[in-house]
Amino acid sequence: MEWFTAPDYWLSRLVFQRALAAVYLVAFLTAALQFRALIGERGMLPVPRFTERVPFRRAPSLFQLHYSDRFFAVCAWAGCAVSAALLAGLDALLPLWGAMLLWLVPWALYLSIVNVGQTWYSFGWESLLLEVGFVAVLLGNDEVAPPIVVLFLLRWVLFRVEFGAGLIKMRGDACWRKLTCLDYHHETQPMPGPLSWFFHHLPRPLHRVEVAANHVTQLVVPFLLFAPQPVASAAAALMIATQLWLVLSGNFSWLNWITIVLALSAVRFPADPPAVPDAPRWYEVVVLAVSALLVFLSYQPVRNMLSRRQVMNRSFDPLHLVNTYGAFGSVSRIRYEVVIEGTADAVPREDSDWREYEFKGKPGDPRRWPRQFAPYHLRLDWLMWFAALSPAYAESWFATLVERLLENDPATLRLLRRSPFPPDAPPRYVRARLFRYRYTTWRELRETGACWDRTYVREYLPPTRLAGAAQRS
């Protein structure tokens, strides 16, 4: 079928596939380095406990069949290896069917991780990576030209990401409609980056322009993805520019980067296509059949986008084939942070020697400037932001976190930037306090060198020690 392929997009496919492999690599690396403390056998939310109560049909995963920390590590590092191989172009050296199977491997491995990851893996970019990764299986390799249907499926995903995010903003917080959300967002976002302080202090009229431009990019430009070239490429380029602006303004894991990867698939790069044979019939049948299934499954996210009760970041099937997306439907006006402290004193008093635990990404010491971590995902730091919004968000894991800190658990301490206690001398007590954080002004920054100012609000968790520790003291 001559209409089936689009040879002019061969370079677009190549760039997209290599960039997607890089995102996969970051995702698997994040899982490999953090899982023991989060979902390992002694993690805050252990996988074995989850699989005991959740059946395979609701959360299909290799770890439903068997779990051990060693097996998880093997799967995560295998995902890193396959992702690196795809990044290096191994799929181009394989026959068409072999390349498709190779692309299926990281999708299946990451699906297995997400489906047992619980709240640590409840972010929209997990489902987005899986949906994009599944569609990528159909793209083929150098043996065939890129299928038109698959290229449009990728644009359809990008449309839903951007348009869904735009709708949730307009239906959510009134500040998006008043163009005032960026007066607060850079200060209250989950994990500020090194430039977030400067973005916050941009002139307010410029903030209004930013919000208005965001609405245009998310509510108007997505429709242009389905226009003829070069309009579609221009629309994708505008989305890429917007996402790069967001990369500079904060740490949003790989959300911005996977969106950029999607947009790259819509850009037609000027390059002469290589000569390739016609696509085999079995490949055409597989691509058309799976594409028809994905279009059919899109009914649920379309219905959600059109609903006045639109929800953000929900998967409609256990394989995460088609999902709905959106972020920051509401924006916090005040930033709260949970500060965790420990003491070695036998009796915990207010004037005891309380020492603060330092996290890698979330604000702590007012003088410590935020760092850039994205696309790497600091899962504990992100969940601590939710914990500050409401203790209910942390009910399932916060007590275990405190217990692991009281034990000086090595896997948990590796999630932190610094523990104030030596490995052989854990704290006797740990407590948590809630603080209000705000960015300092230009004058305060010059005078104090601190980018944050914090004010004590209330006790979050009273001084706590391990059960039975009093008898052992």
From TrEMBL:
Keywords: Endoplasmic reticulum, Membrane, Transmembrane, Transmembrane helix. Residues 121-267 form the Lipase maturation factor 1/2 N-terminal domain. Residues 321-462 form the Lipase maturation factor 1/2 C-terminal domain. It is found in: Endoplasmic reticulum membrane. One of its GO terms (biological process) is protein maturation. InterPro entries: LMF, LMF1/2_C, LMF1/2_N. Pfam families: LMF1, LMF1_C. It is a multi-pass membrane protein. PANTHER family: LIPASE MATURATION FACTOR, LIPASE MATURATION FACTOR 1. Belongs to the lipase maturation factor family. This is Integral Membrane Protein. It comes from Streptomyces leeuwenhoekii.
